[in-house]
């Protein structure tokens, strides 16, 4: 009989790595479960009226597929009336942003007229709303 001359210098670390990964997974699950269950006695606020925050209100301009224009859900009869209302808004809050929402079937000229009005009134933060691709 011949003796087995294989060298057993190699250590198989796969079971040890599996054990470490299972322990890590258990640790992660237990720490997130523990954080959610912490009860805290929150302080109470005073009954005084809260100070009004002067955050800029976004002006939403919507153009539907018939070409009707709405400013913040209020129907606007024409582009000139939109310009008048936007001028009043700009006078009260000069840094308010504007969002233009146009229907995909809307004529491009109406959207361009709205963007032109926004430019003339000095709105520098103008966004165009779109649907995300899915």
Tell me what you see in this structure:
The chain is α/β, with parallel strands linked by helices and 134 residues long. The protein has 3 helices and 5 strands, in the order αβββαβαβ. The chain has a domain of 70 residues: Nucleotidyltransferase, domain 5, CATH 3.30.420.270. Strands 3-2-1-4-5 form a 5-stranded mixed β-sheet, with helices on one face. The longest helix is centred in the N-terminal third of the chain and has 23 residues. The mean pLDDT is 79.
Number of helices: 3
| Largest sheet entry | 5 strands, mixed
Write down how many β-strands occur, each being a DSSP E stretch of 2 or more residues: 5
CATH class of the domain at 59-128: Alpha Beta
Q: Secondary-structure element order, as H and E?
A: HEEEHEHE
CATH topology of the domain at 59-128: Nucleotidyltransferase, domain 5
Query: Ends: how far apart?
Result: 70 Å
The Cα radius of gyration reads 32 Å
Strand composition percent:
5-15%
Instruction: Return the structural class.
Output: alpha/beta
Mean pLDDT: 79
Oligomer: single chain
CATH architecture of the domain at 59-128: 2-Layer Sandwich
* Overall morphology: elongated
* Helix proportion range: 25-40%
Low-confidence stretches: none
Strand order of the largest sheet: 3-2-1-4-5
């Amino acid at each position: 009989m011949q003796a087995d001359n294989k060298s057993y210098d190699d250590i198989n670390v796969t079971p040890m790595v599996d054990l470490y990964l299972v322990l890590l997974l258990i640790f992660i699950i237990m720490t997130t479960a523990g954080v959610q269950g912490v009860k805290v006695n929150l302080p109470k606020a005073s009954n005084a009226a809260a100070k009004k925050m002067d955050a800029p209100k976004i002006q939403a301009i919507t153009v539907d597929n018939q070409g009707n224009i709405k400013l913040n859900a209020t129907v606007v009869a024409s582009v000139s009336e939109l310009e008048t209302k936007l001028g009043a808004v700009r006078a009260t809050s000069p840094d308010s942003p504007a969002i233009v929402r146009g229907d995909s079937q809307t004529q491009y000229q109406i959207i361009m007229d709205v963007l032109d009005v926004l430019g003339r009134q000095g709105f520098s933060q103008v966004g165009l709303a779109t649907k995300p691709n899915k």
